[in-house]
């Protein structure tokens, strides 16, 4: 599998400098587009995490920005410029529940009881755009493909539940990841 994007720095519309109409409660909520290519034959479902390891010195933990599980590959559109690449379009996070209800999104770090900031699922169980407070951060998007859906994951799952389900799925998931930068 190969993951790619048309940028290495997360564009303003999907991050700290997002316009007010791309925010909920001050949080950027419009997810960025990316591509998935060269998926192993037999893979039928996608799962991913988008995290910020550079947040550890700032808040004491790796910030979870977005997680998705059990997305049927057949429900996605192929990129017309590359007949092999699956395109995850901009704003997919907000559109996903209506478009593909069997896919689920996990809680992000805004749902943390230690922050007490947000309770709106549009903020806590969808994409949360990068907003590094101290310096540019490096973010990691990891995508896995499996033959079967992962059991036991419901809307609002926690990232550790996704990782446990991947380890216990009885197959070696196909995976790849990319690093992206978010500007302070």
From TrEMBL:
Cross-referenced CDD domains: PEBP_bact_arch
Could you tell me which Pfam families the record lists for this protein? PBP
Q: GO molecular function of the protein, one example?
A: protein kinase inhibitor activity
> InterPro entries under this entry?
PEBP, PEBP-like_sf, YbhB_YbcL/LppC-like
Keyword tags: Protein kinase inhibitor
Family classification: Belongs to the UPF0098 family.
Name it: YbhB/YbcL family Raf kinase inhibitor-like protein
Organism, scientific name: Bifidobacterium vespertilionis
Q: What is the lineage of its organism?
A: Bacteria, Bacillati, Actinomycetota, Actinomycetes, Bifidobacteriales
